[in-house]
Amino acid sequence: MALFGKFNKDDLVSKAKNAVDGIKTSIEQKQAEKEAYEAEMSAKAQEKKEEIISTILSNQNNGSIFGDTDTKTLLDFTKDFYDRLLMPANSVALSKISMYPYIDGKTLEKAVNNLDGYDSSETPVLMIKGEKKQIILITDKTLYFSLALKEDAKFLVKGKVSNDEISEILFISEGETSRVDCDGYTLAEFKTDKTVKEDFISLTNYFESIRKKDFVITDEEVDQLIKEKIGSKIAAELKKYMIYDDELFVYFAWGLDSLAAKDYIVCTNKQIIVMDREAFGATSDIKQFYYEDITSASTEQNSNNNDLTGYLIETAITAATKTCDLYFSVAGARTKIKTLYKAEAERIVAVYHQFRKLAKQASAAPQVIVQQQTADDPLEQLKKLSSMKDMGIITEEEFESKKADLLAKL
What we know:
- Helices cover 45% and strands 23% of the residues.
- It is of the alpha+beta class.
- The strands form four sheets. The chain has a five-stranded antiparallel beta sheet. It has a four-stranded antiparallel beta sheet with strand order 9-10-11-12.
- The protein is elongated, with a radius of gyration of 35 Å.
- The N and C termini lie far apart (148 Å).
């Protein structure tokens, strides 16, 4: 029995050892396969990086992506463009675009970790974010890219190209797919939706303006782009409440799409219009505030909770989602509009101050009354000639001669 027991024990130990060795071999094999796969994908990512750069560099260069525009002009225009042309009628939460000087520091910090050789002395001008951590970042000197490898999106193709080597960047929406092309090479693709279409309209206008050195943004341009973004149906409905011939759209905010916030907020160069999106077209749901009638406009983080703990929780949530309420004071009454993204609400306040100032300047300007000139009036001259004849200054013959000339002019 002892021998039989020892035999069983040794057999079990041997089997256990073999099992452990098998598991160890399997783990080592899987690890080797994993390392080989990662090496293969990394090599493919490196090949793709070299392909992108060499393709861009091989194109005939027609000048920098920003032309010879100096940095200050570029940054000033970028801020103005973002405020006046990109933000209006854009979904702030869903937009893929950030622009100077509104590129969030934390977002940039995360992006830089996925970029190859980022130079912190450069100024970020434009960032385009895609799915799966994809990023295109354009600074005042360089275009950086971090793109998902087609074979495995967990691997990123990271590289950079000097702006001076890039002639053209295009934003094209075709069917279900929208793409970013750089000198003929497709850097990134996006699934086409309303937000991507709006972003691509804005980006196309941005680079076209730089190419043409057209750095002046007029209210007419803003009006046209907003109409293009919101569509003819909404634009036509809003036009019913714009009574001035020279009234133009200068800002449009969608706000949050929630039960707590159902309003479109529209700024023209004359007034602010608030319209309920669910009861669209119902006149009872329209609020109009002309700039000269608004005494103040402000934003406030939104919370209706009187309990301190509840208030702190709500303010933490709204801080994370960057939402706030907008307030107007008109004729002693305070009107609350909720809930907007903070960027939208702050832009509306800025627009209010701009056009409120213009309205006050217009009302304070002295009125110039231009009196009709009568010096060339033949009847008036005839009266003067008659007086001159009576006073003996001119003779009867001279009077009759001048009189005939003047009567001929009547």
